């Protein structure tokens, strides 16, 4: 047996990916059939070829869309991480400044007491 437990998050992501691909294939097939059905002048072999080409193109466009979405997600994550880092730096700086003011106030009050 494997000594390391499987990463459940990665496993679930992989299953989700397979389900998305299966759904896209089914969707592409159904769209191809609908498209070819409107071309009633095609022979059976021509219809099959049109459906096959339509499916291929549909899946390519779907893949491109997913890649663009993933890239945009990465860009947004990077932007938000940078904003969060800058915000965290400002909060820490404000806390340090507040502590310095409190210490200075304590020293001034202690010196005159």
In short:
With 113 residues, the protein is mainly alpha-helical. It has helices at residues 8-37, 44-112.
Tell me what you see in this structure.
The chain is an all-alpha fold and 113 residues long. It is built from 2 helices and no strands. The protein has helices at 8-37, 44-112. The longest helix has 69 residues, at 44-112. The protein starts with 7 loop residues before the first helix and ends with a helix. 3% of the residues are buried.
Q: What keywords describe this structure?
A:
113 residues, mainly alpha, rod-shaped
Topology at a glance:
Elements: H1 8-37, H2 44-112
Helix pairs in contact: 1-2
Helix content: over 70%
Termini separation (Å)?
72 Å
Query: What is the general shape?
Result: rod-shaped
Q: Tell me about the biggest sheet?
A: none
Q: Give the radius of gyration.
A: 30 Å
Q: How much β-strand is present in the residues?
A: under 5%
Catalogue the unreliable spans.
none
Q: Structural class of the helix and strand makeup?
A: mainly alpha
Q: What is the H/E string? A: HH
Count the DSSP helices: 2
What's the total number of strands?
A: 0
